[in-house]
Design goal:
By secondary structure, the protein is mainly α. The protein is built from 9 helices and no strands. It is elongated and about 50 Å long.
Length: 193
Amino acid sequence: EPVEQALALESLGWGYFFVGNDAAARTQFERSLELQQLGGEPRLVNRAKLGVCQILVSQGDLEPAERLALEALALAEKQDDAWARHLAHHFLADCALISEDFETAEERYSRSLRAAVALGNRTEKATEVQGVAMAAAGRGHAERGLRLVEIELSLAHLHARVRGPIHELGGIGSARASSFSARRTCGSLAKKF
């Protein structure tokens, strides 16, 4: 069954992604998308698109990543899929951040943050606050960016004390994917200071 194979390939793609094998992850994600497009339901096709988008952002392949994220966002809106909406906004923000369009990145991370708040996902909220902070720093508002991170870390610490660990599997992928944009942005910001 193509849909079941596609889901298995997607899982394999995430496995490769989490251990840093982007080339193998991309192969699995792209094959998963091909199979989902043959017979998957629209939500599963969109889910596969977002997997491909994740690896494209991680590799810095921004034009196709942005195109896929826009397609995924349109489908998410049509399907009222809050999780896909959140991820699409996040990947669009990553593309802007890596391109050093900090104003657009801040706006897009803010949209993704609102979607993460609506989902109630603590890890994703923290990831989006970090994105807003990096974009703010890129716009020359480093102090504001640091305050945002400080506030988020304080809230995360409080949350961990009250409810237990805040780390979720989804956050690992977000953190790893953000590493490319963070390395590039931090390098360009270091030159400014």
